[in-house]
Amino acid sequence: MSGVDLxxxxxxxxxxxxxxxxxxxxxGAVAPLxxxxxxxxxxxxxxxxxxxxxxxxxASTGAVQVIDFSRNFxxxxxxxxxxxxxxGAAVVIIDADLQHPPETIPEMVRLWRQGTEVxxxxxxxxxxxxxxxxxxxxxxxxxxxxxxxxxxxxxxxDFRLMDRAVVDALSRLRENQRFMKGLFAWIGFRTQTIEFAxxxxxxxxxxxxxxxxLNFAVDGITSFTTVPLRLWFxxxxxxSLLAIAYGLTIMLGxxxxxxxxxxxxxxxxxxxxxxxxxxxxxxxxGEYVGRTYxxxxxxxxxxIRTVSVKEPSHARPKAFPAxxxxxxxxxxxxxxxx
Length: 338
Ligand code: UDP
Ligand code: MG
Prior knowledge:
disordered C terminus; about 45% helix; nine-stranded mixed beta sheet; 2 domains; binds magnesium ion; elongated; single chain; alpha/beta
């Protein structure tokens, strides 16, 4: 082991304004623990001065690693990169916008020292969310409870602590379409949940608007269940049975009462209805095929411009180019090794 006890992964996308305050509260919460710790900032292709803001942070008690992405790859990729580069015996993932209070970390570490492998942080309320967002996420959790292969804990986001064993297990899941909530749930391990109060964003705005969240939900559903595909099989069966019954009634009618000209409108209605159903079916099929296509390309999950580490003891930052570091910097190396 590298001698780092605790790594703190911070995905950052246009967070320049709030980083100073975040760093102050983070160091305030973590330094008293007396651990060897590091923060890993992943600059996810920010268009503001986030990278410069990170570079200005003083590495007084903990080391500062900076991973600079070549463009915006999304929060899930940023977290994955952070986990790949984390050296600690435990890793915490936290948002940079101070919605996740760093003061919760000591409690997480306490539980970890007692042998808990995953400490989840559940938000006490969804007051910080719009009513629509709260309603939709409630719907999503209910749906996922019925459909998914794994149980997604409710109101638990990325804010969590994971033991090294958990991080290593997670790093072996290299799927491209990363629905982290599902991946976290899939790996298992001894888990405890603590509550925290979500705070309002200190600076800037949330990067997740409704459309993105909706797509996120579709990602989750298609990554963790094939029920929609199977559903279509049942719909087809039910419709065939109905069609047979309908055919029989028509035949019987023709035998018993002769054959008056059958209704044109009912035929049109049936044809359009069935056409519509078939299109939906093809659409769902296409969604899964598309996902398979994306996965078989084996593209790396992210591309790094530079990685740099500022150790707390020496003041001078050393930067090195994005060469595979322990074979994982290119994001997909773990998969390639299989
Ligand atoms: N984030 C990121 N890449 C993105 C979008 C967001 O790294 O493409 C980071 C962002 O900087 C923040 C965290 O993910 O630290 C959570 O983002 P945000 O606060 O916008 O999401 P919300 O709290 O509304 O879920
Ligand atoms: Mg936020």
